[in-house]
User: Fold this.
Amino acid sequence: MNPLDQTVDKMTSSSNGKHLADTPVPEILITPTRGWASLKLNEIWEYRELLYFFVWRDIKVRYKQTVLGASWAVIQPFFTMIVFSLFFGKLAGIPSDGIPYPIFSYAALVPWTFFASGLAQSSNSLVSNANLIKKIYFPRLTIPIAKVLSGAVDFFLAFIVLLIMLVVTGITPTINVIWLPFLILLAFITSLGTGLWLTAMNVQFRDIRYTIPFLTQFWMFISPIAYPSSMLDEPWRTVYSLNPMAGVVEGFRWALLGTNTAPGKMIFISATVSVLLLISGAFYFRRLEKTFADVV
Amino acid sequence: MSKVVIDAQGLGKRYFIGSQQRKAKYKTFGETLQNTLMSPFRKMGQLLKGHASGAAGMNQEIWSLKDITFQVKQGEVVGILGRNGAGKSTLLKVLSRITEPTTGSARIIGRVGSLLEVGTGFHPELTGRENVYLNGSILGMKRSEIKDKFDEIVNFSELEKFIDTPIKYYSSGMYIRLAFAVAAHLEPEILIVDEVLAVGDVSFQNKCLGKMQGVANEGRTVLFVSHNMGAIESLCQRGIFLEEGQITFQGSIQDTISKYISRNLAITGGFADLSERIEERKGPQEHSFIQSVRLMDETHTSTDMLRMGAPAIFRLEIDFKKPDEFLEIGVGISNLQRVWLHYFISKWEGFQIITEKGRQIIEIEIPAIQLYPGEYLVDVWVKHTRKRSYDDIVHEVLQFSVMEAQIAQGEANFKYYSQNTEVYSPSHWSLKGK
Assistant:
């Protein structure tokens, strides 16, 4: 067989053959949807490779053209911790459940930064991907999901620093660390749920973009980042845990630092609220989705 | 071969656009004040209920597609023709599920790949290699599929050396080559292509057309929008002609093209009133609004036929809303394949627009039309050179034909050569001895 025949052979086999044959022919029905649309989670599963590429893209470009690169993921919570320790810990003398204040606040800032940056990124995600939305079809939900997921890398970098701090100060995590993945998932759900609401609204009104910094700051103060939730008495502690991040943050401290404020009830309430946020956010997003390409 | 793969039944698409009329309802100061104060809350309420367009106060409707019914069989290559604003792109967007129809339905059997733009999702910070994967995945290719075809894609783009360079360092030509290379290797059963062949250099365009031809010959179904009549005629078997969002003709591609051209001629006739042509224009029209365009011969008579080498006059009627010294008027002439032949630009000739508000009539005199016999199209625009954007631009305002005339010194057979060339320039020949 001469080389030319081989190329031709290769080309025809790759173009006619397996990729088309191995998937059944799909049938698409295009009709107007009225009112609330289904979530089409199976479609997101079908597009999981695209989701992967979106996450990969967001991670790759996140710290491009910066000097410090991925160290930003650590610098942000770390310096906030220093400022908090000085002003809230030293000057204001805020209690820290018997834990050294720097560790107390850093253990909260790690999940908080994951949540807050996920929220900021996902809220702006549709607008920043407007050119994609206008030119190609794919399940739009993948965009904000990818944005929150891509923050996981930053989270793990900051988390490693937290582990180092634990080793240095000689604090041994309790057996409750097995709950950490669940708490991280909870932070993810809260971030995504809120992000879905906001990004869908942001498509129509860019006011949302300006409310995000304000919202995150406000949310930070109503979460037990700089202070312990043990400062609150019942029934206010229960009301307080309606904020899903309260459960996440207190859960982190309980699992890693062994604070004796076993937050079972708190986490249960927080988890419920955050799941509701996600479900309502997803449906709201899907409802507005049909207008995205026209107005973004 | 005769299975129907696209079956569109009564597709319609309504857009809401902003309207100022609603504000006029509030007459007194108190009502206006109350409305101003309350409207953010009312808008927010509507948005929370999921009425996005209502919330934005967009209540004037425009039907950009109306009752579109057609069928495409497996393996057919169908060209969609129509003027700018006729709804071609909207139709492709509906069929590629980017936007939903307002009425009707479409049933599509098979994997759809749509190319409404090349390089969708390219990220400037990523390398060529990374963008091939990202873009391929966005276009609907599987990762394994991209991996298999990667070398083929890179070969096609002729960018082997730069494949690991971030594409922000690419020239625009390289960028388009890479984008096309990925797009050309997309192998869905149904391919939807919008006007993407209009970019890139000619040899690469031909390479892409060749690839498209290959796709068509493989028995895939293709829906194709282009202003390149040559490409449409050689690729497509069947045509659909859209006018104002409706199908006014369906048939063989030759019939559809002649329908399209004759409709265009009927519209023009040497004069085009543009005041009603709102949808086809682009640009914010902040500074100006082109009212009409007239093409005249040397006796100032409207015409859509010019003789070779004869003078031609364009008369533009423009409303200047906010004139300033950065405005520049342009008239462009292209052939029917939309290859540009002449640009006449006010600034180049030292013409400064009178900085006065109101309607102005401007005449552009071309001493001799240096075009071969054939059909040509005219575009007009007002550009803001400081903002580097078109303030108002209307495409294909006029169509005119050039007739053969004995303008050369010798005996010239212009008509014969007019298939191959477009611009005629006189030349002087002399023998200078050895």
Q: What stands out?
A: Chain A has one domain: 42-295. DSSP finds 14 helices and one strand in chain A. The longest helix of chain A spans residues 264-295. Residues 42-295 of chain A form one domain.
